[in-house]
Amino acid sequence: MAIYTDLDLTMKKHPVTKDLVKLTDDAAVKRSILNLLQTQIGDYPFHPEKAGNLEGIQFEIMDYVTMARVERTIREIIGIFEPRAKIMELQITAVEAIPPGVRVQITIAIINTNSVIQIDHYLTRVR
Fold first, then answer.
1. Which of 59, 80, 100, 116 lies at a 20 to 30 A Cα distance from 70?
2. Which H, E and C letters describe the chain, residue by residue?
3. 5-124: CATH, from 3.10.450.40, 3.30.450.20, 1.25.40.10, 3.40.50.720
4. Using one digit for the tens of pLDDT, what is the confidence trace for 64-82?
């Protein structure tokens, strides 16, 4: 039995039941964290505090101060808006490839389960 469930935002239907597919446990928490990392101010009406706003940070010079700001923002947004997860390890790496961006690697323990998941996400400037 699944402890955590969320709707899959792809809105795929189940082939047998014709119902919307649900994400469960690890997949639900992982998708929720990725959604939080990709939110911008204004994505949630009347909740400007519920935004990672990491896209705006990426247009700054990637020095140690900016990297620390990215890390602090990720820790805050997950700590406040995703109570199902606890950050075990967080690594931020500036990537100077084309397109330049920030690689975020998060190791998360899911509360009330024995699961530990790895999230590897690449934040890039959108033009």
1. 116
2. CCCCEEECCCCCECCCCCCECEEEHHHHHHHHHHHHHHCCCCCCCCCCCCCCCHHHHCCCCCCHHHHHHHHHHHHHHHHHHCCCEEEEEEEEEEECCCCCEEEEEEEEEECCCCCEEEEEEEEECCC
3. 3.10.450.40
4. 888 888 899 999 999 999 8
